[in-house]
Amino acid sequence: MRWLITNRNLDKSDGFGGDLAKITYWTADPSTKPDLSKRSSWQQRTPKQFRDALAAAANNFPHPVNTSIADQKHLCLFVHGYNESFADSAVLYDGIASTLFDGPEGLGELISFDWPSKGSLLGYLPDRSTARQVADDITNVFEELYNWMSDKQAAAATNVDKACRARTSVIAHSMGNYVLQYGLESLWTRKNRPLLVSLLQEVLMIAADVDNDIFRAGENISHGDGEGLANLSYRITALYTGRDDVLGSSAGLKHFGKRRLGRSGIDRTCPVPDNVWDIDCSKLLLPDVNGLSIHGEYFQQRETTVYSLMRRLLQGTDRSVLIASGEVPLAHPHVQQSGIPPSSPPRS
Length: 348
Prior knowledge:
Number of helices: 11
Oligomer: single chain
Order of helices and strands: EEEHEHEHHEHEHEHHEHHH
Largest sheet: 9 strands, mixed
Number of domains: 1
CATH architecture: 3-Layer(aba) Sandwich
Distance between the termini: 24 Å
CATH class: Alpha Beta
Structural class: alpha/beta
Low-confidence stretches: 333-348
């Protein structure tokens, strides 16, 4: 199934526009080979219909008690970046879903959270403003997930057969990470800053257009920008490359030169939470792609090692295994020594 949550306006054509509107919910059946860039290919659902259909899909996942971590299925949210029209984001979403989530070896269900990017290179600063405004909507989406998982956790305490069957994850690209950052920070505050809660098992921050010191508070609680993200996630992986000229320009546009996480990796002059790490993808991306195009190249070559890496990360493969196998470069030697908790997180 294809899943869409969007707060774009309905435009006069067969699509969605670039203005902020009330959040709506949609589904489409991929077996009919729909053109997902057209609104007529989607069926609008009420919030309850959408939640019920998603819960029914998750209930068909294999039970975690007798299924290995790598074979368990996901409910994964995809948040696109800046400069994405609805048509472009729909095509991008469908490509990720068909590559990683469809078929017998698929990872489960991918849901698109589609926000009203202007779809223009000249719209960078308006996109940044809109991304901040939509945080309330994605916070509400995450709160629904939080409450649902809390209910499942309570049910599982009395009957293990009622345990949540889905791993929960997020793939965020570019400025979508800015949306994600503020959404989870707001949720963490709204829920009175709960600790030791794994709302999300795996978070992939790809070409993230956020400050590279976002996790500068480390393990401390000090109202930092990335504390909600770090405390509500089991593991966060930032994929970056210094070849990304889009993020090089981004740093100069609005933050007095502070480097971007998706271009420079994590600022390791600051403390870093143990569940956060980064991977330099410069050698994994095609060498002949120029610095502007490489910003979206992570998703363009479906047979590349980047997609394979994303699959392994979502499957919960421990970073020490990925480093030892040579699947990722060891850019920061102390990362290998610090390790992370076992790959099986608490489950609701």
